[in-house]
Amino acid sequence: MSTDRLWRRDEEVPAAVLEAIEQAVVLHGRQQTQGSDARDIAVALYENGELIAGGWGRTEFQRLYVSYLWVREDQRGQGLGGDCLRQLEAQALRRGCVDALIETLLDEVSDLLEHLGYVCMAHVHDYVPGFTRHIMLKVWTPRG
């Protein structure tokens, strides 16, 4: 029995295929667990109609997963990142989340997150040359 198998690599693999692989992995993982309630969560701050800060992620299994948190460069240093994070946290708490998870490669962001109540659960030195990956967790209600 012969098959016509064909490997495609790098640029030969269309973006739609990459997305299909990602969705299949996520679906498989969720099928292994019980009670997935994944929902997107987002916040965006505008000034004079222009986006100046925002963040998004998801809530699932009573946890806030923050994927992205961003402040426009000329608006940094004013506390807007912390404000965005607090907005996401407030929404997550209303959804019944008991903790929040966020990762960063920047030491100064890790320090800010600690100031906001997050604890470094793990870090990987030189995750990207010259940068440490910080995995941060904030617990509102301990899990049983």
Question: Which key phrases capture this entry?
Answer:
144 residues; alpha+beta; Aminopeptidase; six-stranded mixed sheet
Multimeric organization: single chain
Helix-and-strand structural type: alpha+beta
Main sheet makeup:
6 strands, mixed
Number of helices: 3
Provide the low-confidence segments as ranges: none
**CATH architecture designation:** 3-Layer(aba) Sandwich
Can you tell me the CATH topology? Aminopeptidase
Q: Say which CATH homologous superfamily is assigned.
A: Gcn5-related N-acetyltransferase (GNAT)
Number of strands: 6
Q: Specify the helix fraction band.
A: 25-40%
Q: What is the mean pLDDT?
A: 95
Shape: globular
Order of helices and strands: HEEEHEHEE
Distance between termini?
54 Å
Question: Strand portion, in percent?
Answer: 35-45%
Organism: Roseateles terrae
InterPro entries: Acyl_CoA_acyltransferase (IPR016181), GNAT_dom (IPR000182)
Protein name: GNAT superfamily N-acetyltransferase
Domain N-acetyltransferase: 4-142
Your description of this structure?
- Residues 4-142 form the N-acetyltransferase domain.
- Pfam families: Acetyltransf_1.
- This is GNAT superfamily N-acetyltransferase.
- The protein has 144 residues and is an alpha+beta fold.
- It has a single domain, classed as Gcn5-related N-acetyltransferase (GNAT) (Aminopeptidase, 3-Layer(aba) Sandwich), CATH 3.40.630.
- 29% of the residues lie in helices and 38% in strands.
- It is globular.
